[in-house]
Write a structure and sequence with these properties.
Blueprint lengths: L1 E6 L11 H4 L4 H11 L4 E6 L3 H11 L5 E5 L8 H9 L4 E5 L21 E4 L4 H11 L1
Parallel strand pairs: 1-2, 1-3, 3-4, 4-5
Helix pairs in contact: 3-4
Length: 138
């Protein structure tokens, strides 16, 4: 099984950025743990702060991977283009968020990805990614 995690803007700062919201662990460290716990999965990770690069990666992987775990971060709430890319591909996408976006600012309650996602996992910290991965393994 081939799964990619795609992270959007500022998620490269996990472990440093707002630890009270996002925790103290870097995503790279967390990802290494996922790879160890799920050796049967060909698991890849991609992060970009640039909207067009995220769209390119969704398009590149969206017809050949078994699943995409997508945390588009702030672009979730602003990018029609990322929403359209998710709608255009064949691979199922699970939208994830580390924080509970509904307990934050009202503009974070809107998602351009959700209507085309297979499912949404919100607010379980970094464990949100593992929950999405476990779904793909069922």
């Amino acid at each position: 099984m081939k799964i990619i995690i795609i992270n959007g803007p500022n998620l490269n700062l996990l472990g440093k950025r707002e630890p009270e919201v996002y925790g103290n662990q870097s995503f790279e460290d967390y990802f290494g743990g996922l790879q160890t716990r799920f050796p049967q999965v060909d698991l890849e990770y991609y992060q970009s702060n640039i909207e067009g690069e995220l769209i390119d990666k969704i398009q590149q992987t969206g017809f050949s991977y078994d699943g995409i775990i997508l945390n588009a971060a702030a672009y979730t709430h602003t990018s029609v283009g990322i929403g359209d890319a998710v709608k255009a591909i064949a691979s199922p996408v699970i939208e994830v968020h580390i924080s509970n976006t509904f307990s934050r600012e009202s503009f974070r309650h809107q998602s351009f990805i959700s209507p085309s996602a297979k499912g949404i996992i919100i607010g379980f910290g970094l464990q949100s990614y593992e929950l999405a991965l476990r779904h793909f393994l069922q």
